[in-house]
Structures
1.
Amino acid sequence: MENPLLLFPQLNISASKDKSYYKVTKSAVMEEPNKASKAGAKQKRNRLSLLLQRSEYHESEHLGKPGNLTKASSVSPEEAVKWGESFDKLLSQKAGLDAFTKFLKTEFSEENIEFWIACEDYKKSKTTHELFPKAKTIYETFIRKDAPKEVNLDFQTKEVTSQNIEHPVITTFDAAQNTVYRLMEQDSYPRFLRSDTYLNLVKGRNPGRPTLRRRSRSFTVNDFQGVRPDFTAW
């Protein structure tokens, strides 16, 4: 009996061609996901790089805008010691204000000092013409409900401030600013004085980059009614 392959050689050729076509097709199908995967990975790397650049850019900016943060090396231990005498002395010096702002950023509570600075700038307005746009910006940024940087105010203070926005005057934000000032003085300021950032400045050391940490809870005005900071433990 003759070999069937010899009688029908076209069967072998066709099978060979089909097999080769299958290999080529399979290879092409496998290459497509690989190309897509590589392209996707490259796109993700580019996006991550862009986000990091934006993060570094915004971190270098200073809130409302008092200038860049002062380098620790430019602050003398004697100057840092004076910051511990009172909260007012800390905020009255640019280096102290910058150091405290940097500390609040590590606690994600910088909206308080940003609001305080914005109010200080507002009170420097020389004409009534300047008051309305500044008042509106401050209200939309810090006061109104669900504002992007809403500060913690009691109901009465928020209501009075909101009503005064329609006809702003130099003293429109005084009550709200004093409330936020008191909260920082009784809450954030004592923690700042206990922080490694401040203690290293007093000792003349470079504090390095602070560690970011979340606040355990949000304090309210009622938490500090009649409470004064106790510095005897230091």
Note: The first helix runs from residue 4 to 7.
2.
Amino acid sequence: MFPKSTPDTFSQKLYQTFQTHRRFIKPKLARSDFIIAHYAGEVHYQSDQFLDKNKDYIVPEHQDLLSASKCSFVAGLFPPLHQDATKHSKFSSIGSRFKVQLQQLMETLNSTQPHYIRCVKPNNLLKPAVFENVNVIHQLRYGGVLEAIRISCAGYPTNKNFTDFINRFGLLDPEIGKTKVFLRAGHMAALDARRAEKITASVIVIQRMTRSYLIRKRFLAMANLAVALQTLCRDLFT
């Protein structure tokens, strides 16, 4: 749209548009650089070649030709364009295609329940049993793991299967759900404390009843023995 645009003019436009945004930072003595304060940390960007990427137009005729290739590998590199991308413009750029693909990915994620396995490299030497604390914490922070833990702790850090929860806390007779139980921070400790109090009270009752039973049984046995001795003595002296 703007053939005379340069990385400097692009950066100046960013400076003017986002100068008050809390996530946007302009480095000192920088003409084309900018910093985005992501949740995991600040990331430094350089605007060089930003405009060149958006000039990489894809002609629909070329797209149709390559997507119809008999070579499955080539055809897979050029899937058909999204209909919405062809309605607004005759040409499609790499940036617009990426935006469409990102939107499709978000729709897929929102309609499913994805699970992730986060791999952390313990050291740069690729040796076993060697952990570089700074390296590991860096990966956890910029991978969003620490933020995910913080969010989890602020919300419902404890989630238990319904059957397991009932087996452990059923004696408290709680009114809960049917399949899963989510607990906020501190609730599990509070339930464990109440469970311990309940068990302690029950143990005291059982001990009291057991002692009463044993003492009464012993008393009745001694009473019966005394009656038997008294009867025997009467028989001997009469």
Note: The chain has ten helices and seven strands.
3.
Amino acid sequence: MAEWNEFYQNEDEQQEEEEAEFSGGDYKVSGRDSLVFLVDASKEMFIKGEDGQPSNFDMTMQVVRSVYTSKIISSHRDLIALVFYGTEQSKNPRNSFKHVYVYHDLDEPGAKRVQEVDALRREKGAQLAAQTMGSGETSLGDALWCCANLYSDIKLRLSHKRLMIFTCRDEPHGGDSAKDRQARTKASDLKETGQSEEKAASVYRTVFCT
């Protein structure tokens, strides 16, 4: 977990740098920060490490919980969403995207959400995830599209739009070049749209569990 904590600390430092870059004179970008966690729910994510080490999914839930609690303390008005892809079940606005499960819509963090993330941790959490979402086919392009749609009902001014992908798979589509192209295209579209609409840095990162 030291590596994950270090990553999150670096994330805070970079956010401060970005805010400094976009401030000058009497003008400074204002508004709420927003962050979407897009988490791989494939079977590979639930495999435990050697000597009973936590699975990649469990470590990811620990990171998500840490961010939720940190936001509640320091920036409770920021918006966070938790979305799973590669699921068997589908749950998203109008169920437009198969194998994408929106666990938390973009909203302010709170104690209830922390409890719901806790419910997905450890062995019982893995069982709950399997029962609730399951593991199915993967289309990262559809998942990114779904995440973009989460912003459509947000009327608030947002200073940043962030999307973080957690996965342990270098080839989530199993060599399907068409799906790979779709995902790259959608990621590019998201970044360009975020920059033009918000007039601020829109950061999209991929975090690979190891």
Note: Strands lie at 23-24, 27-28, 32-40, 79-85, 100-107, 158-167, 203-208.
